[in-house]
Amino acid sequence: MDRIASARRLRRTQTFAETKLWEILRNGRLDGSKFRRQMPIDRYFADFACRKARLIVELDGAAHRETADYDARRTEVLEHHGFMVIRFDNEQVLMDPGGVAEAIQAALRLTV
């Protein structure tokens, strides 16, 4: 499967937490920053990426908790490409979307 088709499939099958976070990030709703979903970078797909700010927002569900080594390698590769990576648990997005939005805004200010 090619990368574009893979990204489209990931967008169609996003988790509930990804849907909630996308509602916060889409259409420049957060400080006017344009985010993309499932953006291909190297061999990975960033959950949410703002090219201009060089910021990636990753959501981690229960499966990610068991894959810390994989996540660390993935973060290294993404940072090597000049991105800052911040991570949130799905639970954080669902329980405190305002706090997550504030943390992302703070990260956006750091990248300017």
TrEMBL record:
InterPro entries: DUF559 (IPR007569), Endonuclease_DUF559_bact (IPR047216), Restrct_endonuc-II-like (IPR011335)
A family per Pfam: DUF559
Record flagged with keyword Hydrolase: yes
SUPFAM superfamilies, A to Z: Restriction endonuclease-like (SSF52980)
Name of the featured protein: Endonuclease
Key words, A-Z: Endonuclease, Hydrolase, Nuclease
Source superkingdom: Bacteria
A Gene Ontology molecular function term of the record: endonuclease activity
Sequence ranges assigned to domain DUF559 in this UniProt record: 4-108
